[in-house]
User: Fold this.
Amino acid sequence: MSSSNDSTTPTNAVSIENQNISQTSEASGSSCASPQAAADIAARPSGTVPPSLKEPRIQSWHKVLIGLVGGIVTGFLLGEHAAYLKPLGDVFIRMIKMIVMPLIFFSIINGLSNIKDANQLGRIGIKAASAYLLCTCFAICLGILAAWLFQPGVGLVLKAATPQTAEAFKPIEMLLNIIPDNVIGAMAQGTIMQVVFFSIFCGITLVMMGEKANRIFLTVKDLTEVVMTMIRMIVRFAPVAAFCLMAWCVGTQGSAVLYSLSKLVMAGIFAFTIQYFVFGGIIAAWGRLSPLPFYRKSFEYQAMAFSTSSTKAALPVTMSVCHEKMGVSKVSSSFILPLGATINMDGPAIYLGLCAICFAQAAGHTLTYSEYATIIFTATIGSIGSAGIPSGTIVMLPMILGSVNLPLEGVLLITGIDRLMDTFRTTISITGDAAVTLVVDSSEGMLDREKYYS
Assistant:
């Protein structure tokens, strides 16, 4: 009996589709197309998605990748004149920055609204923060190791410069600055750490209110959807922005900037590559997942990060990819990813450690073990401080050099290549955010594994 019932279902579905096609063709005046369409549907296996409903051949990340390659070629062809294309890219970045603060605020609260158990909230937060900090510390050590292997500072000569004094490192003050004294001012100035702190505080407060906060949570959910719709509209401009920004970068700096600091660039790319595959190891070891689907589905947000050099700009796309394509829960994509954009800066961490050792080699300064420990600690804090800011490491590097009494004029050496290296740093950072989010989500049993492996 069951087999008979199962066999009639596809037949009925086909007959209904045939009737619909016949009616459609009669209305349009084309009778010859109906038999062929009916034959195609009859031959199609049950449950098969019609070709018209499949995803377009050229997906969004393909378009961004085409924009990147086209921008590189155009940059070499136009040279300095490619600078005229930069304003178009700046429009995109400004629109992303315009929406990223509301996104972080509403998405974190919306993510926390799905957590009804306070113990689960604490557990997820501790897991995510611990994983992010461990990844950052490992990245700094990897940058130091790359400097040992490639010796990029040997042969470099520090140019004489006006004596500068680095600001004294004040860890307590830096931690206190996470708490905003003016929330509106923090949002207006784009101080992402302060916005994240306030958002988490609001979310926890609403969770503690219980049913009284249900109406607020519904409003936040609707506002989150409004922001996400705006982001989807903005992201359509991403391929053009990628083209313009890459053309400007290559056209104004070219390949000549790589020559004088080629060993530093090679050491950086080596460390970035190792860190990239370390993420796969983390996914396999702690997430109990194959890393191949992760790498395959990450190109879209990686292309965005590479072209904009800002984790803020890539964050909306990363949240969308993690939830819709990797099967990460709303809780994790809305809470852990924005947190990672604040405290997980693997790319800058690698670069800060690498540059500190490079300039020590250039100055002929032999570092002690305590100085290595100081570099690791200050680079961890400095990488967090540079969160989401293009070329933010240039601001933080003097603090690290000053903490171990290295000459600050070394910063002048890397300004020419910093914009290029920033593209790699941002890509590694956002990939680390997604990897940790995936692992934590899997450990909590919230990951849609079927979607992940699809």
